[in-house]
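# nightly structure sweep
# worker-07 picked up a monomer target from the shared queue
# config: single-sequence mode, recycle default, output format = structure tokens
# input follows
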Amino acid sequence: MSKQGTSLLGAIVGSSLLASPVYAENASQLTTLNGLSADGAESALQSRGFKYIDSNTNSMGYTYSYWWDNGDKHCVRVEAHRGRIESIIDAKNADCHQSGGNTAAAVGAVAGLAILGAVLAHKSNHHSDGRHSDDAPTEQQYDRGYQDGLYNAPYHNFDRSDAYSSGYEAGVDQRNANLRSHHGRGGYTAVAQYQDLQGARAAGAMDELTRRGFVQVDNFTSGNARYSIQWRAASRQCLQVIIADGHIDDVRDIGRHDRCR
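# output follows
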């Protein structure tokens, strides 16, 4: 399991839970884990008969991990944010790379895709409503759009499908999230990292930007958010930092600003 998957998956249990016997549970029986620390997620879910399958983190910093219980052929999705569990819901078995579904409709969708030779690249969390379509052709169109967006292929919605359009948007968002550790510049000039500060507490994050060589050159407020423009002359990085509710809500290199010079 990857470091990212282990650290952000949610988790969730104290020593009393770890001592529980192994038995199958669905999402409705795991709701007591919501809101708890993400530390210990792997051992907690494994003690309940679940096996980690994979995970993805979106551009807002939410991590969705998928867990499979082979005993009762059940898949659940764990949503974590800022190191804590937000929700645990049942997922279609296809999300855990398993054939068959949790419902008759799911079986139909998975079977239809299997006949067409399709392997879904996206997960249920990539849909705006958090659910796969039960219609196999629609799901195929969404997945084609998702993969085009994910791999930066030109937008090619030749049949004007809403599913393709939605999938493409989700793929672009996931591509940006996957590349969040990249500073967005090429060449040989050393640059300062900043993406790791996304979601961090504002006070510590701003001090860390100073330690990394950034200087605040402008700041202003809009609504409930505070904006800070940070400039690092050595690498010519110009950051826009948005602070809301005491945390870094968004940080990005905007390239140019009147005061970044």
